[in-house]
Amino acid sequence: MLLKELREEVLEANLELVRRGLVLYTFGNASGVDREQGLVVIKPSGVDYGKLKPEHMVVTTMDGEIVEGNLRPSSDLDTHTLLYREFPSIGAVVHTHSDYATSFAQAGLPIPALGTTHADYFYGPVPVTAALSDEAVQGRYVHETGLAIVEYFRQGEDGQPIDPLAVPACLVAGHAPFVWGRNAHDAAHNAVVLEAVAKMAYQTLTLRANCESVSKALLDRHYFRKHGASATYGQC
Ligand SMILES: O=C(CO)[C@@H](O)[C@H](O)COP(=O)(O)O
């Protein structure tokens, strides 16, 4: 069995997604790459995470040709392998359907950098790709996912390329996040933090949108009812 250690790392990353509530049933996937051998280890498609074992992982070339494995590779294999070919600094890719990050992806909105928690992990907004063409057939659709991510990172919003390790995630419009890192543990960790900062961003934006100060009339009515009309602030 090829790449025993990488299989175990990728399995652990897949199980971390379940433990952290980032995926349901067979949603999402994780993979890792051994660049010296030019081989990718990826989760098999549609397999219950509770039954997943290292020997179930599928080993492919970086072009997606199956080298070892009896099960079908994840349906996102093309996206994972394209990211490995185009982002030479990354060692693992994770795809989740985590609630808040997926909500931003479905809304076609980037996750804004609103605080230090975000800034500790993502050097700027977590981008969202252009909406994928809905007439795409399965094969092209999956391929377009990776291309949409890579094209965004090639030029960013201002024509400048983005270092994928500086912003180790991208939301696919209408779909969900793809996240990466130096290794499988790092990629899974980044996916957990992505969901946390997406939730914080959603809550922050909701608070900002719904927090109007109360009117002075209401302040007067309530404050003076309790403290007497003659009261002035701080003398009650
Ligand atoms: O996003 C999707 C389907 O929309 C996929 O990522 C599935 O959530 C997992 O597919 P497999 O990895 O089991 O093929």
From TrEMBL:
Catalysis performed (reactions): L-ribulose 5-phosphate = D-xylulose 5-phosphate
GO cellular component: cytosol
Coiled-coil segments on the chain, per record: none
InterPro entries, alphabetized: Aldolase_class_II_sugar_metab, Aldolase_II/adducin_N, Aldolase_II/adducin_N_sf
Keywords of the record: Carbohydrate metabolism, Isomerase, Metal-binding, Zinc
Cofactor(s) this protein cannot do without: Zn(2+)
One function term, GO molecular function aspect: aldehyde-lyase activity
Gene Ontology terms: biological process: pentose catabolic process
The keyword Transport appears for this protein: no
EC class name: isomerase
One Pfam family here: Aldolase_II
The EC number(s) this enzyme carries: 5.1.3.4
Gene3D superfamilies, alphabetized: Class II aldolase/adducin N-terminal domain
Domain Class II aldolase/adducin N-terminal: 8-202
Record-stated family: Belongs to the aldolase class II family. AraD/FucA subfamily.
Alphabetical list of NCBIfam families matching this protein: PRK08193.1
Protein name (record): L-ribulose-5-phosphate 4-epimerase
Species this protein is from: Terriglobus roseus
